[in-house]
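Table 4 source record.
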Amino acid sequence: MPTERRAGEGVAGVILAGGLARRMGGGDKCLRPLGGRPILAHIVARVRPQVAALVLNANGDPARFAEFGLPVAADVVEGFAGPLAGVLTGLEWAAAHAPACRWVASFAGDAPFVPPDFVARMVAAAEGEGAELACAASGGRTHPVFGLWPVALAPALRRALVGEDIRKVDVWTARYRLATVEFPSVPVDPFFNANRPEDLADAERLLA
């Protein structure tokens, strides 16, 4: 749709897959199979059409993601500093590699049901409300990892992470005007994430 196309032209995307996946028993959650394909394949298929550029934030050997044809960027802050480190990685990657993009949309690497209109709705809400950031919500819960972030805030986020040791997304976003965008949670919550092995069985049922 034209609206989605215009919205995505100034937006880069970052898929956050840099965590340790402790609840899943370690390894890459995004490479676990779902419906015969890796979870990451489902995410890329839904996200790539919505953005002008897309990067995968993951640590370790990037060769294991070669089949997806994505640039891979490791955390720019050491020590597995959480989702904010991944967001900062996306912002600094976009500044260097997608300079035409003023926004970065972030997506969890274990959530295969991302809405196809995610970016369009997030940009419309941020710009419509004069907000500096946007965050997704569904079913009465906010999902801070699914956000829209201005590239211009990269230096401020780096100072918060490195200088102030801030790790919680909500603590940092509270400093700015934040638009919260509600998405319907039926028939499937679009922000369902496969954190634990039993979640994969649920995801298979939802996919079916």
